[in-house]
Amino acid sequence: MKALRVLVRRPTAPPPFAPAIQLRVAAGSIALGTLATLASAFALSWGEKFLVPLLLGIITAYTLNPLVAWLESIRIPRAVGTVVVMTGVLGALVLGAYSLRGELQTIIGQLPETAAKVSAAIEQVHIGTPGNLQKIQSAATKVERATAQAAGGPPATRESATHVVVDQPTFKLQSFLWAGSMGAVGVIGQAVMLAFLVFFLLLGGDQFKRKLVRLAGPSLSNKKTTVRILDDINGMIQKYMFMLLVTDLLVAALSWIAFRWIGLDNAGAWAVAAGLLHTIPYLGPGATAALTGMAAFMQFESISRALIVSGASLAIATVVGSFVATLMVGRIARMNSAAVFISLLFWGWLWGVWGLLLSSPIIVIVKVVSQHVDRLHPVAEMLGE
Hints:
Layout: H1 18-46, H2 48-73, H3 78-99, H4 101-126, H5 132-150, H6 173-204, H7 207-215, H8 220-262, H9 267-277, H10 283-300, H11 303-333, H12 337-351, H13 353-372, H14 377-383
């Protein structure tokens, strides 16, 4: 019998140029991803004037929707409930501003005198004490002269500085008032448009939710996923806004107590300003400390009292932000603090103050969406604790 020969095929080795092809494909993917990221950032920056009011309107509508839904549950039509809620919110804002109008007018009237006193104090600190730049220039002149004498040449002489007279533009009160009035008209116009946007979003109710569910496709799993995403976003934003309301009210109350105990005039107006500015992370408490410090220096004419007022403002914001806000945010979204801070830097760089204000809701929405989409689970893992 002939021996049977078993032919075993050896696995063919990949061609020697396969790793190079893979590297080229990976480099191309990275380049496309980088270009897509840059294009997205440019589009977000370009659409700031449209996207910022839209996001503010959506977040405000999510916040006020439970009140409208409660009125609807007690047999009040949604249109009437929307009008009642919007009228109540706008009325509360107008009433609060009207009740503090006297203190606000006093603060605004003291601004020129405060600026003059602060500038005079800064000048007194610098009078008679040469700055570091002058000291460095004097030392450099002495070294230059000593080097020239050691080389046997004539001592170096400093050329007289040439004074250039620059014509300063004259201040025109009419132009200043016109620019200020146009800025105020723009702010009022944006506020009116935002109010209308919130009104129509509340009036629509679940209309957009139903449309998004229909657009998710015929698959029942896709519809369920879309419903869960929208419900989670709704719940997260409402909880976050409730946390923001609690912390701002707490900052305002503690600031009012501290300012009244120190003896700062117009403590109520400054406390309200501290609560409102606390909405803006990091930048808001710093602005509050600076403004209240200037007001204290204007009143007491003492740097130590001004530092006490600024320190109290910063201490209150730090305690409330570090303990109360961190505890509530941790229970609400389970967010990674580093990811939240990076989001704050990005949106603040992109949209300025509005980016700082909207960064937390945006990152919460991104986390909720990434938790329910399989391909985005790595993003949810990065944002989570």
